[in-house]
Design brief:
The complex is a heterodimer of chains A (about 550) and B (about 210). Chain A is of the alpha+beta class and about 550 residues long. Chain A is about 40% helix and about 25% strand. Chain A is built from 14 helices and 18 strands. Chain A has a 5-stranded mixed sheet with strand order 3-2-1-4-8. A 5-stranded mixed sheet of chain A has the order 11-10-9-12-13. In chain A, strands 14, 15, 16, 17 and 18 form a 5-stranded antiparallel sheet that branches. The longest helix of chain A is centred in the middle third of the chain and has 66 residues. Chain A is rod-shaped. Chain B is of the alpha+beta class and about 210 residues long. Helices cover about 50% and strands about 20% of the residues of chain B. In chain B, strands 1, 2, 3, 4 and 5 form a 5-stranded antiparallel sheet that branches. Chain B is rod-shaped and about 150 Å long. The chains are: A alpha+beta (about 550), B alpha+beta (about 210). Chains A and B meet through helix 10, helix 11, strand 14 and helix 13 of A and helix 1, strand 3, helix 3, strand 4 and strand 5 of B.
Chain lengths: ~550, ~210
């Protein structure tokens, strides 16, 4: 529950109020006298006003407040402040408490130069305030500002939908010892205060009497006349009077004013209690005054500039604000560090969880690995590199595909020689050569590094790398030879033709024939049967069988 | 502007400084903790990667063992990895075959082993193939004897590790069928160059567990 403190100071008394939620409560009342100040100073240390933590708004409600208008050049910022201070010093040379402001919508002229109309006000009797403020500062109370009660009324005018020129008429508390009530008239132009008067009502003219109504009516007329006299209220503009009162008193005024019609005056009546409730102030002292709303506003939404307050008087409030800023900064730093470190701790926790999960996986993997190693050890049981095992098997598989035995070639030759019984073999040579395709290599153990790489590339491409070529040399003669070389030649030629037709035979070269008919060589022979019948019809054939290409794909695949 | 009331601000300022110090310390500590955890996680990740890699390697090894070891054992049993025993075994087989085939004569000559590079076969260091040649000189009654001899050796040798490079067969008798008057005498002479392969594996050093 937030409690705000308001110090109300009038010409007659000083009252300490506290605003709690939607209620205004009177704490203590002091007479505005030397004794009253002394009593206040004595009471203050034990009061509910907490100097360190509770800022206090001081609201002045006095007759001795003077208002002046002054036209100033239209400038902004620091220039405007300096200019206003200059005007204040000129108008209120000896005033300790003065205040100037430029309403944003009032007094804006367009002529040769733009000018603003500033409202300058001053509390003409500073002694009214000085002892009270001294007592407050002695206890280091944080004075938020010294506010003028009529100036605070601007805040709720918009809720009244007040016309541009209106006179706010409201009662306030005791002003003098012989005047139990007083009447405040505040004149607003476009909802900005231009003038305010406080009038002490005589005791015999209490509310609810015709004499009182007559007095109030006359004061309204006086004020209207004054406003028109100083050109604050143009003659063409009617004056709207916002009358605030309570019950029977308000009704008396309504009845009286209705009997006194004035063409440029219009009245708007407001029940104070009802209006206070409308403005959110539900509890307040009795009898209710409109000023209670000003006090509540001063506590809850005080103007930021402090109005009449001087810097020395608000130093504890600045201290309080600085303390609050420091404490907020400390809280912010602590919160930020807690959030940041919490974030890091959270990340660290997540990282730790991830690490634990990794370690769990690692333990499981180690177990599997050890089992695999054990199985490997049991199976292999030796210090042989397992890759050597693969190399050995691969190499054996490769070599097994390379081996060619002479049985097929010899069977082929035997098959053809069976058809030519006169062709007798004396010597047969068989050999196999392995060579790389298209390279002309025939000795695979002497491959250069480049050739080796080429072979590897071909292997990778799935191509056949090597081929085995079987060759046969057949040496023999026609036996028995009848001396007919042509016939012998024909027989050999028939064999050659038959061999060449065989798809398994790639090439047949005639190295030597019974009758050498090569035009590049000399021919020598004998007609008829020779006695010893030897080497007369020799032949020598070289055969190359079709190469046995290795199967495509990986030749090292395990069989 | 009046000066600030420092006595009133003392404790808030001290509190602010304390908060800044505390917050900074907290922040610093949390960052240190995070860095430690991150480093520990990185270490765990690295360890896991290592063990996973080793596990994968062990699985590959097991796969190799599963796929290749039976055949390797067969080769080992056929002395493919022991060239001395392999040669002794080959000669013993030749002797048995000569008796079995009743060959009139058989002599042999071995050459020095040579390192052999199988083209296109990638092997690891420490593995070497050796090629040996054996020249056989045979006296034959019939050319089938040579084929039977070669088939016999082929069947007794580890598959693929034995081959024939060349053979020369020469008739030793005239064509006039006079050999029929000398039964049991060799009619043919054959010279064959056989090739046999062996492997040498470099044993690895004992692994640390």
């Amino acid at each position: 529950m937030k409690t705000q403190t308001v110090f109300y100071l009038s010409d007659y008394q000083a009252i300490v109020y506290q605003v709690v939620n939607q209620g205004l409560f009177e704490v203590r009342c002091f007479p505005n006298t030397t004794e009253g100040v002394a009593e206040f100073a004595q009471w203050l240390p034990s009061s509910p006003i907490r100097a360190y933590f509770m800022p206090l708004a001081l609201v002045v409600d006095t007759r001795l407040e003077e208002y002046q208008f002054s036209d100033i050049p239209h400038v902004r910022g620091r220039d405007r402040r300096d200019l206003l201070q200059l005007r204040l010093r000129r108008l209120f040379a000896n005033a300790d408490y003065s205040y100037a402001r430029v309403p944003s919508r009032v007094g804006y002229h367009t002529g040769q130069r733009n000018e603003d109309r500033a409202l300058l006000s001053s509390l003409t009797n500073p002694d009214l305030l000085r002892p009270w403020i001294a007592a407050l500062l002695q206890q280091k109370v944080s004075i938020r500002g010294v506010y003028s009660l009529p100036l605070l009324s601007e805040a709720f005018l918009k809720d009244l939908e007040a016309p541009d020129y209106c006179l706010l008429l409201s009662y306030t508390g005791q002003l003098t010892s012989d005047s139990p009530r007083s009447l405040r008239q505040s004149f607003f132009v476009q909802r900005y205060l231009s003038l305010s008067r406080l009038l002490a009502l005589p005791a015999e003219h209490g509310p609810g009497q015709d004499a009182h109504s007559f007095l109030v009516f006359n004061e309204i007329l006086k004020t209207r006349q004054y406003l028109r006299g100083i050109n604050l209220l143009p003659h063409t503009q009617p004056l709207s009077v916002l009358v605030f009162g309570n019950g029977e008193q308000l009704e008396q005024l309504r009845q009286y004013f209705s009997k006194q019609p004035v063409h440029d005056l219009s009245y708007h009546y407001h029940e104070i209690s009802h209006f206070l409730h409308q403005q959110g102030l539900n509890r307040f002292p009795n009898p209710p005054y409109l000023g209670f709303l000003n006090l509540s506003l001063a506590a809850k939404h005080p103007p930021a500039d402090g109005q009449y307050a001087r810097p020395a008087e608000t130093r504890y409030y600045r201290n309080l604000r600085l303390r609050r800023w420091i404490l907020a900064s400390a809280a912010g730093v602590l919160l930020l560090s807690l959030l940041s470190s919490g974030h890091y701790f959270w990340q660290a926790w997540q990282t730790e969880q991830a690490r634990l999960a990794l370690e769990t996986t690692q333990v499981a993997t180690v177990t599997s690995y050890q089992a695999a190693r054990e199985q490997q050890r049991k199976t292999l049981g030796s210090d042989i590199d397992v890759l050597h095992i693969k190399n050995t098997v691969d190499a054996a598989a490769y070599l097994s595909k390379q081996q060619i035995f002479p049985d097929r070639a010899l069977a082929l030759v035997s098959h053809y020689l069976t058809d030519y019984p006169l062709l007798a073999l004396k010597e047969l040579r068989w050999q196999v050569e392995r060579r790389a395709k298209h390279t002309g290599l025939n000795n695979d153990s002497t491959l250069s590094a480049l050739q080796q790489r080429l072979l590897e590339k071909r292997q990778a491409a799935g191509g056949s790398l090597l081929e085995s070529v079987q060759s046969l040399q057949l040496r023999g003669e026609i036996w028995p030879f009848d001396g007919n070389a042509s016939k012998a030649l024909e027989r050999v030629r028939n064999l050659v033709s038959a061999l060449r037709r065989d798809p398994a035979i790639h090439q047949v070269d005639e190295i030597e024939l019974p009758l050498n008919i090569n035009p590049d060589k000399a021919l020598r022979g004998q007609i008829g049967v020779h006695q010893n019948n030897q080497n007369l019809a020799p032949f020598h054939l070289d055969l190359a069988l079709e190469p046995d290409a290795e199967p495509a794909g990986n030749p090292y695949a395990t069989p | 502007m009046p000066p600030l009331e420092w006595p009133l601000l003392r404790w808030p300022v001290v509190l602010l400084l304390g908060t800044v110090l505390l917050g900074s310390a907290l922040l610093l500590y949390s960052q240190v903790v995070l860095q430690q955890r991150t480093a520990a996680k990185a270490t765990a990740e690295q360890a896991l990667t290592d063990i996973q890699q080793r596990y994968e390697e062990s699985q590959n090894t097991l796969k190799i063992i599963q796929d290749f070891y039976p055949h390797f054992e067969q080769l080992q049993a056929g002395y493919a990895l022991n060239s001395e025993k392999r040669l002794m075994n080959l000669l013993e087989q030749l002797q048995n075959l000569r008796e079995e085939l009743m060959l009139p004569g058989l002599s042999y000559e071995t050459q020095a082993q040579q390192a052999y590079v199988i083209p296109g076969l990638k092997t690891t260091a420490g593995f070497q193939v050796y090629l040996s040649e054996l020249t056989l000189r045979l006296s034959l009654l019939h050319d089938d004897d040579l084929m039977n001899l070669l088939k016999g050796v082929q069947q007794r040798q580890p598959a693929g590790l034995f081959g024939v490079k060349r053979c020369e067969i020469t008739r030793t008798q005239p064509f006039d069928h006079s050999w029929r008057q000398r039964p049991g005498q060799a009619n043919l002479e054959a010279v064959c160059v056989l090739q046999w392969y062996s492997f040498k594996l470099e044993l690895k050093e004992a692994e640390t567990p």
